[in-house]
Amino acid sequence: MIDEFTTPDITVLGEQDGPDERRLKEALGVVLGLDRTVIRAYLARVLHDGKTSGVMLALLTDDEEDSEKLVAQAGRTFAALFNTRANLDVIFLSGEKDAEISKMCPPFYARRAWIADSRPTAR
Asked: Using CA atoms, how far apart are residues 36 and 16, in angstroms rounded to an integer?
C-alpha cells in the first residue's frame, strides 16, 4: 500500500551509506535500470518536520507523473532487504531540487546516455 502525502521543505543532511545501504543501492539500481523514466536516484539522510527521518529515496525522472509502480517496486526491494514494517520514503525531484540534493549527496544511480545504435556512451 502506498501512502501519498505532501512534505514540507526537506533538508538533505548527506548520503545514507554503509554496508546495508550499499546492498540496497545495488538492488535498487537494478530495479531503477528497468524503468526508462528514471534519470538519477539518491539515498539520503534528511531532516523534515524538525527530526531526522532516516532513509529517503529521491528520484529525478523524465516522466511528469509520479509512478506508483516505481514506488511500489522500490518499496518491495527495500522490504526484501530490511524489516518489512520499516518504510522507505520516496520523493520525486524537480530539476531545481535535483541540483540542490546533488550538492549534498552523490547519486547512486544515473541513467546512461544512449547513442543512435543503442550502445551506452562512456561518462
From this structure: 24
CB 31 within 8 A of CB 122: no
Please compute, for residue 94, the number of CA atoms within 13 A of its CA located in the half-sphere on the CB side.
2
Q: Are 112 and 123 in contact (CB under 8 A)?
A: yes
Whole-model pTM: value is 0.81
Give me 114's grid cell: 544512449
Q: Which residue is associated with the grid cell 532487504?
A: 81
Supply the Cα-derived Rg of the chain in whole angstroms: 14
For 38-63, write each residue's pLDDT tens digit.
Answer: 999 999 998 877 776 677 899 999 87
